C-alpha cells in the first residue's frame, strides 16, 4: 500500500488563469472610467539601453496595457543617456496629467544611480513600489505605503484567491525570485478572507530566502505586518535547510535554480515559486528551459499547493502592475471631479 506521502499530489495554482481574471476586471473598470470621466489610466514605461531581457519585459507590459485599455507612454532611451537627462524625463512624466504610473525598467546602466532615479519618481505615480518613502512606510508599524513592489502583491493574491477554494491549508511556503506591491484595503480584505476560512498568517513562522530590495525585503515586511514571525535567510546564513524545513511560510527569493528540495518542505505546505532561471536543455529548440527556485517534481510529492514556472507568479506580477496603475488613476480622477 502506498504511503500518504506517496499518494500526495500538490494542487497546481494556475497564476496565468487567475491573472487573466484580474485583467478582465481591470478592463471593465477602465471602460467605466472612460465613460464616466472621458479618460483612461496611463502608464509610462521607461527603458534605457537594449538588453534583450529588459526589452522583453517592457514589451510584455506594454502589450498588457493595450489589452486592458490602459494608455502606454513609451520612453526608450539609449544606453549612454546621461543620468541628468533620464531624471529630466522622469520629471516630465511626473508633471504629465495623463500619466498615472511611472515604471523605470531595471537594471539601469552602471553609470546611472538607480536609487537616485527611483527617488525622483513622484510617490503618487510609483506603481512599481520602489520609492524609498513607499518602502519606508511599509517598514513602519502603523504606516501604509501607497504602493508595494508588484511580485509580493502577486504572491499574496495567488494564495488568497486559491485559499477561498480549498479552505484547508494551514501552512504556507512562498518561493519567489523578483517582485511586488499591495494596497492596505486589499491586504485587510485578504486577511479577513483567510480568517473566515480558518486560515491565518498571524503567529506563523515565516522564512524569507533572500533579502533583495525587489522581493525579499518587501515580502518580509508585508508578512511582518500580517503578524507572522519572520526570519530572513541569506547567503551568510548557517544551515538554511534546517531553518526552511521548520517554517510555516517560506519566501524563496534567492534566484538559484531548484535550490529548494522536496525534503526541505513541510508536508502539505503551499509552495509559490517565482524564481525564473534558465538551465541547459538540448531537447528544447532554444537550448534551455526555465525552472524556478524550487525542485518542482520533488515538491509536488510533498506540498499541498504549488505554482508552476513559468505560468505561476509571473503573469500575476504584470496584472498587479496594471492594478496599481488603475488605482492611481482612480485616485486622481476622483479627486479632480471633486474640485
From TrEMBL:
One of its GO terms (biological process) is tetrahydrofolate interconversion. It catalyses: (6R)-5,10-methenyltetrahydrofolate + H2O = (6R)-10-formyltetrahydrofolate + H(+); (6R)-5,10-methylene-5,6,7,8-tetrahydrofolate + NADP(+) = (6R)-5,10-methenyltetrahydrofolate + NADPH. GO terms for cellular component: cytosol. Keywords: Hydrolase, Multifunctional enzyme, NADP, One-carbon metabolism, Oxidoreductase, Photorespiration. Residues 188-331 form the Tetrahydrofolate dehydrogenase/cyclohydrolase NAD(P)-binding domain. GO terms for molecular function: methenyltetrahydrofolate cyclohydrolase activity; methylenetetrahydrofolate dehydrogenase (NADP+) activity. It comes from the Eukaryota. CDD domains: NAD_bind_m-THF_DH_Cyclohyd (cd01080). Pathway: One-carbon metabolism; tetrahydrofolate interconversion. The keyword NADP applies. Residues 13-128 form the Tetrahydrofolate dehydrogenase/cyclohydrolase catalytic domain. Belongs to the tetrahydrofolate dehydrogenase/cyclohydrolase family. Catalyzes the oxidation of 5,10-methylenetetrahydrofolate to 5,10-methenyltetrahydrofolate and then the hydrolysis of 5,10-methenyltetrahydrofolate to 10-formyltetrahydrofolate. Homodimer. This is Amino acid dehydrogenase family protein.
Amino acid at each position: 500500500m502506498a504511503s500518504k506521502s506517496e499518494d500526495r499530489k500538490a494542487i497546481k495554482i494556475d497564476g496565468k488563469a487567475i491573472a487573466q481574471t484580474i485583467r478582465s476586471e481591470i478592463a471593465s473598470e477602465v471602460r467605466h472610467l472612460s465613460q464616466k470621466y472621458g479618460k483612461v489610466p496611463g502608464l509610462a514605461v521607461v527603458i534605457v539601453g537594449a538588453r534583450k531581457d529588459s526589452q522583453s519585459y517592457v514589451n510584455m507590459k506594454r502589450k498588457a496595457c493595450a489589452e486592458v485599455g490602459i494608455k502606454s507612454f513609451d520612453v526608450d532611451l539609449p544606453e549612454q543617456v546621461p543620468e541628468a537627462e533620464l531624471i529630466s524625463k522622469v520629471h516630465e512624466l511626473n508633471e504629465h496629467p495623463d500619466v498615472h504610473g511611472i515604471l523605470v525598467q531595471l537594471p539601469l546602466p552602471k553609470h546611472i544611480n538607480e536609487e537616485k532615479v527611483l527617488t525622483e519618481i513622484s510617490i503618487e505615480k510609483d506603481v512599481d513600489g520602489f520609492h524609498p518613502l513607499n518602502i519606508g512606510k511599509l517598514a513602519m508599524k502603523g504606516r501604509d505605503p501607497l504602493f508595494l513592489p508588484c511580485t509580493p502583491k502577486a504572491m499574496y493574491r495567488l494564495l488568497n484567491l486559491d485559499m477561498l477554494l480549498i479552505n484547508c491549508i494551514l501552512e504556507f511556503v512562498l518561493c519567489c525570485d523578483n517582485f511586488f506591491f499591495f494596497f492596505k484595503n486589499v491586504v485587510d480584505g485578504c486577511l479577513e478572507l483567510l480568517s473566515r476560512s480558518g486560515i491565518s498568517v498571524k503567529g506563523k513562522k515565516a522564512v524569507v530566502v533572500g533579502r533583495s530590495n525587489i522581493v525579499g525585503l518587501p515580502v518580509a515586511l508585508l508578512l511582518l505586518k500580517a503578524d507572522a514571525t519572520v526570519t530572513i535567510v541569506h547567503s551568510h546564513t548557517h544551515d538554511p535547510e534546517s531553518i526552511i524545513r521548520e517554517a510555516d511560510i517560506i519566501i524563496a527569493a534567492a534566484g538559484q535554480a531548484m535550490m529548494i528540495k522536496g525534503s526541505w518542505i513541510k508536508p502539505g505546505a503551499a509552495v509559490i515559486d517565482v524564481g525564473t532561471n534558465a538551465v541547459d536543455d538540448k531537447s528544447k529548440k532554444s537550448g534551455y528551459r526555465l525552472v524556478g527556485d524550487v525542485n518542482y517534481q520533488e515538491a509536488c510529492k510533498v506540498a499541498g499547493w504549488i505554482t508552476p514556472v513559468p505560468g505561476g507568479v509571473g503573469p500575476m506580477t504584470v496584472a498587479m502592475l496594471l492594478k496599481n496603475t488603475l488605482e492611481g488613476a482612480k485616485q486622481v480622477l476622483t479627486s479632480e471631479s471633486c474640485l
